[in-house]
Structures are given as C-alpha cells and as structure tokens.
C-alpha cells in the first residue's frame, strides 16, 4: 500500500458467522474535528432515488446501509469556516484578482496518506503555484486533488484481462486495481477505509495550513459515489447544508445531468462547487446547469472546468463563454487540458502529449481574452514521482510505459507540468519549445538525468 499507518484510528468489524463477510463496522477517529449535526434526512436520502450515473453495484444492501450509518456518525472532514475562506478566494479568482492551480493524482492511493506522502504533494502544488504567480503576476489559490480522489467514473463497466471479463477498476473507494475477480468486487467497507485515509490526510493539511496560513492548500475531489458523499453532509449552526467530505467538490463530465442526483446534491450545499464541461454540451444546457448550481449568481460559488481537447476548444468554447456572460453568472473559468487529449499508444498505453496540452491551455487563454473574461487557472493530473506516463510529443511514444504506476489515467511529472504551465504566459507561443528543450523536460528526467 504505502506509508499510511492509520494509527490514529480504531476500527471494529463484526463478521457474519455464516458467510464470513463483514456486516457491521464502527470506527473511532482522531478528535478535534469540528462537530456539526448530521443531515442525512429522508429529504437528502431522496437524492438516491434520482437518476445517478456511475454508481457501484453493491451486492449487499444491508451492508451498504450499515456503512452509510457509520459515516453519518463520524465527524466531518472539513469545517464551515475553511470552506467559506476558500469560497472568498475563488471569488477573487472570478473577479480577476487571483488565479488558481488545481493538481494532484488521477486516482489517489489511500495507502499514501502519511506525512511524507502529503508533504511531497504539497511541494508540487507550491512549485506550480510559484510558476503561475511569476507568469500571471497575481496571487494563486492552491487546491489539491487530494484527501478524497478515491473514485473514478469509467467509460465502460467491464474490461477483458487475459481473456477474462472483469468489472473495471473504479477507484479504491469502490474496488481494487488488481485484475482478479475478488479484488474487482465492489466492497462497501472501502468507503470507510477511504474516509479514514482522507481524515489522516486532512490532519496533515490542517497542520500545514496552520504553519503556512498565507498559502493554504485546499482539498477537492469528484463527488462521485453518493453513498460516501451523502452521509458526510452536515447542517451548520446557521441551518445551511455543508458537504464535509472536501472543501471543493466537483461534478464530472459523465455525471453532470441537470436532473441527476449529483447536480441535486451539490445544488443543496454551501461549498463552492465545480462542474466539468466537455465539447458536446450546448449553451442552453450549460445555462441550465449554472441556474441549478448558482441560482443567486454569487462570485466564488461556481467554477466551470473546461475539458474540450486542443483541436476543439477554439471552436466550441466561445459560444459557451458568451452564454454564461449574458446570463450573468460570475463563474471561475478553469482549463483542464488533460481529459480531452488522452490517446492510446501502439503498445496499448494511455498517454497525453505535453505539446498538445500546451496548445489547449494557450487556446483557452486566447478565447477568454477575446471575450473579455478572466482565465482563472489550470487543472492538472500530476505526480511527484518520476514516471513516463506522459511524454512531450509523438516521437517519444515508445517511452510511455517504462515507468507507469498510475491506477487509471496518465499523469504529468513536475517538470512536464511546468512545461504545460509555461503556455499560461500569453506572450509565449504553445509550440515555442524546441525538441531539445522538450527532451530535457521529459525524456531526460525520466531516465534519472542520463543522456538518451
């Protein structure tokens, strides 16, 4: 697993004597987290009866009910004060007074929740934020894909491994990555494991925030598995609903249905929220989403994470920007150049080419500038490790897979992420890097500094 010991917790599991399967779980967690009233009422549970895409097919209804009750009784992971502080920071981004970097693992490993693991990810965010500050000459809000990015939507429910059809890996919150049937079975107890890991990570981040109050790192993840998110909704003293699983939840491209459960949940909470926006959405549908998630048109409430692909964004984004502007929603415009530019190499590895990512970032900035809107920042999938999951361009495709440790999609190394962020400078063309310079930022680092 990793360096996470979870020594701060005590877990008690009751086992069904007939089947040997766990049927009830109780967990004692570290003290000191703000205590708020659980809000898992029948009204909130009714969200589960709405259309909900990408949900696990749990086998044991009694067990998932028990896990929901366990999570309902646990302390929230974030507090109202911090959430409102982040929301004010995002309002500064929407006003053009600040910028934003959101980065971290594609799919987190809950085993990597130790202090050293968290420190390495904070260091990546600090480096990227520093680069953005130099380019944009504005303060940068730091947000990690951290402390809860344990679940992944997938394009298909099963895959074939060695000729055997298996359920696809959906993140450690649902099942395991090993291609064996038992590991791929959705296990409700993983929701508690994810909560415990997220709580330990939050503890490390809380201490970092206390020591570095001017550059706090906030948490975010895709609010995907409703059986995890709903039990962690709490009612504040003022009567508002707060999603305490993370500071900043987002809705993915595959779960952003206007009449769906994910939109219904995030429409109810006071957290700042975000939604991924792909190339197939039309302006009318986007405005419907904005009205559901930001009916009061409040700065800092809603972020639109644009993930369209380098070859599509210049054509599709302008109409959306015009529509949102006309409707009066003061959104944060964020670019995710990762998810619209994933390709598969001849050897079967998913990868992303840094040059292509740079083109999307540059096009995003150009569209927003032409419309008179503020480009708020960038959303990246990154790792502090020296991997070869992404490469600079097609001529390096054979290198993909030499060091490939991602559980799901390919991530950028720190050097590659900095190359992508260099395109944030409006005065630098996205293809300004020569092949030699690209090699020093990707192939060179992947070989530990040896010549290639």
From TrEMBL:
EC number: 2.5.1.54
Positions that bind phosphoenolpyruvate: 145, 253-254, 276, 307
Keyword Manganese: yes
A GO BP annotation: aromatic amino acid family biosynthetic process
Transmembrane spans: none
Cofactor(s), by name: Mn(2+); Co(2+); Cd(2+)
Catalytic activity, reaction form: D-erythrose 4-phosphate + phosphoenolpyruvate + H2O = 7-phospho-2-dehydro-3-deoxy-D-arabino-heptonate + phosphate
Highest taxon of the lineage: Bacteria
MF term (GO), any: 3-deoxy-7-phosphoheptulonate synthase activity
Annotated keywords: Amino-acid biosynthesis, Aromatic amino acid biosynthesis, Cadmium, Cobalt, Manganese, Transferase
Cofactor binding comment, as recorded: Binds 1 divalent cation per subunit. The enzyme is active with manganese, cobalt or cadmium ions.
Binding site for Mn(2+): 106, 339, 381, 409
Pathway terms, separated by semicolons: Metabolic intermediate biosynthesis; chorismate biosynthesis; chorismate from D-erythrose 4-phosphate and phosphoenolpyruvate: step 1/7
Annotated PANTHER family: PHOSPHO-2-DEHYDRO-3-DEOXYHEPTONATE ALDOLASE (PTHR21337:SF0), PHOSPHO-2-DEHYDRO-3-DEOXYHEPTONATE ALDOLASE 1, 2 (PTHR21337)
Similarity annotation: Belongs to the class-II DAHP synthase family.
Protein name per the record: Phospho-2-dehydro-3-deoxyheptonate aldolase
Protein source organism: Embleya hyalina
């Amino acid at each position: 697993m990793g360096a996470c010991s979870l020594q701060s917790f005590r877990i008690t599991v009751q086992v069904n004597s007939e089947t040997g399967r766990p049927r009830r779980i109780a967990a004692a967690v570290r003290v000191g987290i703000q205590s708020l009233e659980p809000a898992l009422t029948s009204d909130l549970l009714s969200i589960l009866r709405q259309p909900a895409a990408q949900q696990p097919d749990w086998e044991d209804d009694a067990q998932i009910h028990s896990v929901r009750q366990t999570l309902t009784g646990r302390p929230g992971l974030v507090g109202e004060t911090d959430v409102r502080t982040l929301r004010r920071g995002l309002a500064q981004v929407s006003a053009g007074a600040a910028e934003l970097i959101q980065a971290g693992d594609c799919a987190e490993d809950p085993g990597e929740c130790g202090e050293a693991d968290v420190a390495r990810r904070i260091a990546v965010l600090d480096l990227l934020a520093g680069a953005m500050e130099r380019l944009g000459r504005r303060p940068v809000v730091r947000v990690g894909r951290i402390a809860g990015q344990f679940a992944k939507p997938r394009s298909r429910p099963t895959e074939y491994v060695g000729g055997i059809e298996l359920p696809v890996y959906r993140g450690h919150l649902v099942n395991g990555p090993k291609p064996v049937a038992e590991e791929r079975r959705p296990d409700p107890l993983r929701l508690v494991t994810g909560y415990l890991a997220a709580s330990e990570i939050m503890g490390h981040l809380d201490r970092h925030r206390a020591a570095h109050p001017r550059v706090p790192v906030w948490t975010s993840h895709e609010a995907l598995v409703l059986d995890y998110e709903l039990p962690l909704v709490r009612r504040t003293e003022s009567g508002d609903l707060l999603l305490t699983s993370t500071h900043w939840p987002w809705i993915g491209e595959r779960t952003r249905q206007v009449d769906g459960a994910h939109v219904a949940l995030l429409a109810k909470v006071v957290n700042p929220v975000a939604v991924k926006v792909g190339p197939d959405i039309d302006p009318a549908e986007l405005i419907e989403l904005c009205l559901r998630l930001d009916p009061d048109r409040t700065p800092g409430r809603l972020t639109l994470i644009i993930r369209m692909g380098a070859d599509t964004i210049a054509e599709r984004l302008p109409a959306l920007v015009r529509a949102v502007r006309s409707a009066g929603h003061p959104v944060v415009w964020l670019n995710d150049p990762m998810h619209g530019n994933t390709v598969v190499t001849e050897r079967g590895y998913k990868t992303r080419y840094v040059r292509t990512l740079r083109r999307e970032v540059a096009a995003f900035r150009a569209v927003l500038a032409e419309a008179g809107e503020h480009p708020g920042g960038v959303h990246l999938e990154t790792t502090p490790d020296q991997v070869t999951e992404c490469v600079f361009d097609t001529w390096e495709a054979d290198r993909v897979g030499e060091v490939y440790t991602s559980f799901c999609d390919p991530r950028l190394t720190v050097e590659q992420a900095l190359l992508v962020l260099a395109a944030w400078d409006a005065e630098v063309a996205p293809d300004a890097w020569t092949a030699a310079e690209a090699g020093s930022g990707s192939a060179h680092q992947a070989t530990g500094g040896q010549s290639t």
